[in-house]
Design a protein that fits this description.
Belongs to the fasciclin-like AGP family. InterPro entries: FAS1_dom_sf, FAS1_domain, Plant_FLA. It is a lipid-anchor; GPI-anchor. By secondary structure, this protein is α+β, with helices and mostly antiparallel strands. 34% of the residues lie in helices and 15% in strands. The chain is built from 9 helices and 7 strands; from the N terminus they run ααααβααβαβββββαα. It has a 7-stranded mixed β-sheet with strand order 2-1-7-6-5-4-3. Helix 1 runs antiparallel to helix 9. The chain is globular and about 65 Å long. 22% of the residues are buried. Bound molecules: 2-acetamido-2-deoxy-beta-D-glucopyranose (2 copies). The site of one 2-acetamido-2-deoxy-beta-D-glucopyranose has 4 residues, from helix 2.
Length: 259
């Protein structure tokens, strides 16, 4: 057996490994008609592709019956509420049942930059009777979304759990008003899945010539106007590409050295 065919085999196995662990939340939820509304809304809000680009991830799935109470909400509200049901970690039934205390979980809503206080976090708790309950992590929120069962689990990749009711976005307590000195949790890098408002454009210099002359020394256009919000998806795509490039160059290296 020639070394080149061994290398070809090596190349194939490695590249297959890199791509075989991809999952598709749409296909996972499609296996059960009970989640068709939830599934459809995940696609409409583009949350499905965000889920597919991340791991580990856990989706708290809601039945059509629960989703029927959503129909009157605005698309933006629906997206925010659904993103509170996407946990940025792998949590399966075994992990939940073995909890000693309650656990605070970070959701995709937290990385939207719109969550205040604890709004972007949810809490899970195991009751004495073994039930697992979920709710908002905002202080005083009720935990009443009960774990029903596991829909799918691919360890450290994706877990989909069916819960009994949706977790509402609770108002942040009034003792932490917006703009207080408490710093908001920083946004993790690479979370460009949300659209942000454009920063205000600098005032036109022609509108008030006299005042403009007087304030020219102090007035400066907002420097944030240069911020680029078009990096969406680049980090998600470049990581596997980099890994792929690494494999190619490794193979190239071995072929050059050994062949
Ligand atoms: C996931 O599956 C759906 C339906 O089969 C398809 O439309 C979509 O393109 C897939 N997404 C990815 C990232 O493969
Ligand atoms: C922003 O993105 C555009 C194109 O996507 C690019 O031409 C421009 O140089 C970028 N600006 C910054 C500040 O990165």
């Amino acid at each position: 057996m020639s070394s080149s065919s061994a290398l070809t085999l090596f190349f194939f196995c490695t590249s297959t490994f890199l791509y075989a662990n991809a999952f598709n939340i749409t296909n996972i939820l499609n296996l059960n008609n009970e989640f068709s509304t939830f599934n459809k809304l995940l696609s409409q809000t583009q949350l499905a592709s965000t889920i597919n680009s991340r791991k580990p991830i856990t989706v708290l799935a809601l039945s059509n019956e629960v989703m029927s109470s959503f129909s009157d909400q605005s698309p933006a509200n629906i997206k925010n509420t659904l993103s509170l049901h996407i946990v940025l970690d792998y949590i399966d039934v075994t992990k939940l049942k073995s909890l000693k205390n309650s656990v605070i979980l970070t959701t995709l809503f937290q990385s939207s930059g719109q969550a205040k206080g604890q709004q972007g976090f949810i809490k899970a708790n195991v009751m004495k009777n073994g039930d697992v309950l979920f709710g908002s992590a905002v202080h005083g929120a009720i935990l009443d979304a009960k774990l029903i069962d596991s829909v799918t689990s691919q360890p450290n990749e994706i877990s989909v759990l069916h819960i009994s009711s949706y977790i509402p976005i609770m108002n942040a307590p009034s003792d932490t008003p917006y703009g207080s000195s408490t710093p908001l949790p920083s946004q993790p890098p690479g979370d460009d899945d949300y659209e942000y408002d454009e920063p205000p454009s600098p005032p036109s210099s022609t509108t008030k010539p006299v005042v403009a002359a007087a304030t020219a020394a102090t007035a400066k256009p907002p420097s944030s106007a240069k911020d680029n919000s078009t990096t969406s998806g680049v980090s998600a795509i470049s990581t596997p590409n980099l890994a792929f490039a690494f494999v190619i160059s490794s193979v190239w290296f071995f072929m050059t050295v050994w062949w």
